[in-house]
Write a structure and sequence with these properties.
Elements (H helix, E strand, L loop, with lengths): L1 H19 L3 E7 L3 E8 L3 E6 L4 E10 L2 E9 L8 E9 L2 E8 L3 H4 L7 E3 L3
């Protein structure tokens, strides 16, 4: 029974990590005002850039289960570089949703689109 539970939880962790690593997602972010932007995940960092390619923020990220943890590396927001935020990831109708669990930075917490992000195909 224990090996089956381990495989299940390892699979859940891989699904979230595998679904966002090395992907890009586009939507209208509240930055202030609504702005078309792209959230691009690498293997351990994520950048937020305007649709024309201007980088607004770079964050380190890691995943655990369905949760993504974000920590500011550089950028224009007022977010503190020492605080790590956590967001539940969910996928519905081919869209990525990031729901805040804990984020002390209001500017980041309220910037993500509530109607989800659409995957940018390479």
């Amino acid at each position: 029974m224990k090996p089956i539970l381990f495989l299940f939880f390892a699979g859940v962790a891989y699904c979230t990590s595998g679904q966002i690593k090395n992907t890009a997602w586009q939507g209208y972010f509240n930055l202030p005002g609504s702005m078309d932007a792209v959230l691009s995940f690498g293997s351990d960092s994520v950048s937020l850039a305007t649709a024309d390619g201007q980088t607004l923020e770079i964050m380190a990220f890691r995943t655990s289960g369905d949760t993504v943890f974000l920590k500011k590396v550089s950028g224009q927001s007022s977010c503190d570089m020492d605080n790590e935020a956590s967001y539940i990831t969910s996928f519905k109708e081919k869209k990525l949703f990031l729901l805040p669990v804990k984020d002390d930075c209001d500017q980041r917490r309220y910037c993500f689109p509530t109607d989800g992000l659409t995957k940018v195909e390479p």
